[in-house]
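Researcher: Structure for this, please.
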Amino acid sequence: MDLRSIRYFVQIADCGSITRAAGNLGVAQPALSRQLQSLEDELGMPLLVRLPRGVRLTAPGRQFLDHCRRALRELDRAKEELRSSAGSPKGQVILGVSPTLGPMLVPGVVERVRRQCPEVALKIVEHFSTLLFDGLLTGRIDVALLTNPSATRALRLAPLISEPIVVLAAPEPRDPRRFYTLAELSKTPVLVTEAIRSIVDDQIGRYGARLNVEFEVNAVEAIGQLLLRGVGRAVMPISTFHGEIAAGRVVAFPIADVNVQRTLMLAHPMERRLSAATDEVSQIVTVEMNALADEGVFSLPVAESGRAARVGEKA
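Model: Predicted structure, token format:
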């Protein structure tokens, strides 16, 4: 088995056709078919089912494809690391962030990358944590900020920040409320994303409570617009609408009798050695997150109501 056979197999799988793959590779179709047959003979099992129009991966073929992609990505990363080891970090880094973090985190990260490592080609993708998790495992993402990820041996997790999840609403001058009890929260219709709903229900479920979800909206900006219009209440991390809270356009109410929070962790795939460029970007993300924490972005407006603390820090 050689590298060329692996690349050929991946190209066939991507194209779904030996003919199209041969055209893309600039290889004669019979020669490509022989390479594929040789690979299947070596493995002792069929990787593809030949159809009248194209090919389809077998179950072993899908499994083998995952390994092939991983191997090719590692080779590419090795080349980048060798090229960058003699000087400043170089190469592409794919950073994953959630929609609740992107607007506040990305500008500072981009400025720092431009200043500290201009030869790094930074690509930023925005997804909810479940998709970021999958992207890390499949190699589509190099480093990501995950929200309350489950413990796994597949990822190297570094806790960065814990912050309160609160009830948000448009200001009501005559409302004397300062907080929500858990009993009040469970009776209040709320707007929430699917991801935050799962986190909150998991934490308050230990006390026999659940959120009363009026609308599940997986669009953070839309939730913000609904709040500004005075349409209902939302349950979200305090940082999500920090600017609106600071400007007095949105009010944040802590949940008084239970600690509901999210923990943000920096995640890398355990099986892959970090390139110099990925390591540099990871350090930049950590520095920027700490800078935002120092500015109070992850804190309730009133300090005694419970500020955000770096994980491991005494609150």
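Researcher: Any notable elements?
Model: Residues 1 and 38 are 9 Å apart (CA to CA). Residues 303-315 have pLDDT under 50 and may be disordered.
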